[in-house]
Specification:
Length: about 250
């Protein structure tokens, strides 16, 4: 369903991703683990095209795009791909000047051109799913971090993306608040939401993910089922990194 082939990303002379090949099956959850600076965020950003790779090919469902060092793809091609994805950030990034429900309806109305009533109906459905319907008209600043992240997840899912990309969705939260976010992500996983998440959180990586990809120095060092990677990683580098996770 999602295939990256030979993706390269450089910032100036700094090569951050090197020939990344990755396949994500529909309905699966993949955890992206690796040390700080290994390229996890950049890899997620290369899938929703917040960053444009210099080489390789990306396919999401039936949409495909190729990259080269000689130029950026056309805006309409970038839009076509990024609309297939939803992104959840470490720091939530809700719009502070919009209420909870407006945070969700905004993109549906302005980007997807939905009518307001259809957008509100969809937003209410999603708020219910993440257990935030009671905060429908609240301002983001009045919510706990866990509540903000649940709204951010609802917002990302609103246009029914093919894949939910999560960049360390629990790492800005203390352990208690991160539990409620883990519970929402687990429920989404059980419902068959396709997800790729960068995380240092063992509850996400070991308990929710089907597959684990270990990234180090911009290269995929090892990947496999989460059971396989966590209990019998083949590479010493993977084993030693896993022992640092909490
Ligand atoms: P991770 O998420 O695994 O911590 P990142 O993808 O954030 O890693 O960063 C990987 C490398 O890319 C780091 O060396 C970082 O400094 C560099 N990098 C990331 N984003 C940019 C950027 N916008 N401009 C320049 N360098 C960047
Ligand atoms: Mg990161």
């Amino acid at each position: 369903m999602i295939t990256l082939s030979q993706i390269d990303k450089r910032f100036g002379s700094n090569k951050v991703l090197n020939k990344i090949d990755l396949t994500i099956k529909e309905g699966s959850v993949t955890a992206l683990i690796g040390p700080s600076g290994s390229g996890k965020s950049t890899l997620l950003r290369c899938i929703n095209l917040l960053e444009i790779p210099q080489a390789g090919n990306l396919r999401i469902g039936n949409e495909e795009i190729s990259f080269s060092a000689s130029g950026r793809p056309a805006k309409k091609d970038i839009r076509r791909i990024c609309q297939q994805t939803g992104m959840v950030f470490q720091n939530f990034q809700l719009f502070p000047h919009l209420t909870v429900i407006e945070n969700i309806t905004e993109g549906l109305i302005t980007v997807q051109r939905w009518t307001k009533s259809k957008a509100v109906k969809r937003a209410e459905e999603l708020l219910h799913k993440v257990g935030m319907q009671h905060k429908r008209d609240a301002w983001p600043a009045t919510l706990s971090g866990g509540q903000q992240q649940r709204v951010a997840i609802a917002r990302a899912l609103a246009p029914s993306p093919k894949v939910l990309l999560c960049d360390e969705p629990t790492s800005a939260l203390d352990p208690e608040l991160s539990l409620e976010v883990v519970a929402v992500l687990r429920q989404l996983a059980n419902e068959g939401t396709t997800m790729l998440m960068a995380t240092h959180d063992l509850r996400l990586a070991a308990n929710i993910a089907n597959n684990v990809v270990f990234l180090d120095g911009g290269e995929i060092i090892e990947s496999g089922t989460s059971q396989g990677i966590f209990t019998q990683a083949k590479k010493a580098r993977t084993q030693s990194f896993i022992s640092t996770l909490t």
